[in-house]
Amino acid sequence: MERGIKLYHAKKYEQALKEFKDLEEGENLNIELIYYIGLCLTQLGDYDEALLYLEQVVQSQFSFLHTFQSRMVLGFIYSVTGRYKLAEYEFKTLINSGLESSQIYSALGYVFYSQKKVEDAIDSLEKAFEMEPENTNAMNSLGFILAEEEIDLERAVKLCREAVKRKPGNAAYHDSLGWVYFKRGKIQDARLHLRKALDLAPGNREIVEHMRIVMEREKKGKNF
């Protein structure tokens, strides 16, 4: 078990999973072992199987830390696989149990916005930002939504600029800032940051689509 945990923390997930799976065959119900198998499967992108293990951990109430982390990972898996209502349930369960954190509110904001619950999304992200003003994920997400919904473009630029300033190597942050500039009609600034985003994440569909829209707008502008 100890060797498997060391491999996991060394990010050698396939090797760690093999260690844990070998142990699983000879174990009765070892919740900690099930927990680490679930984490390994998540890191390897085998989400459906990961869910089977992590749900066991949550139902067992093995320990506060393991239950908390498992619910967070379950929420993440449901989010990235488009099961937003289930993700919302996991994050709300954590909050209702008294576990409020910037990370949870930020994740919940994304889940709300994915369900077109704009006001709830903004409210959650504002809470995340209030709890942790340096949370760049909340900063970026809030800025993007304020721009996309055309609620407060000036604040959106400030938030997204700050996120890029803090993490200049993050493609999503450059994409958001580029899109905010586009919403403000600053096409050259938009192209600059979208180009940077594509350099950092070549082929990303959302960024490519944003760039296509910006270039079409630029082309139309030149034709007038």
Order of helices and strands: HHHHHHHHHHHHH
- From the N-terminal CA to the C-terminal CA, the straight-line distance is 68 Å
Helix content: over 70%
Instruction: Report the uncertain regions.
Output: none
- State which percent range the strand residues make up: under 5%
Q: In the CATH classification, which architecture of the domain at 1-62 applies? A: Alpha Horseshoe
Alpha-carbon Rg, integer? 20 Å
Principal-axes geometry comes out as elongated
Helix vs. strand class:
mainly alpha
Summarize the structure.
With 224 residues, the chain is mainly alpha-helical. Helices cover 79% and strands 0% of the residues. It has 13 helices and no strands.
Report on the structure:
The protein has 224 residues and is an all-alpha fold. It has a domain of 62 residues: Serine Threonine Protein Phosphatase 5, Tetratricopeptide repeat (Alpha Horseshoe), CATH 1.25.40. Helix 2 runs antiparallel to helix 3 and helix 9 runs parallel beside helix 11. The chain is elongated. The termini are far apart.
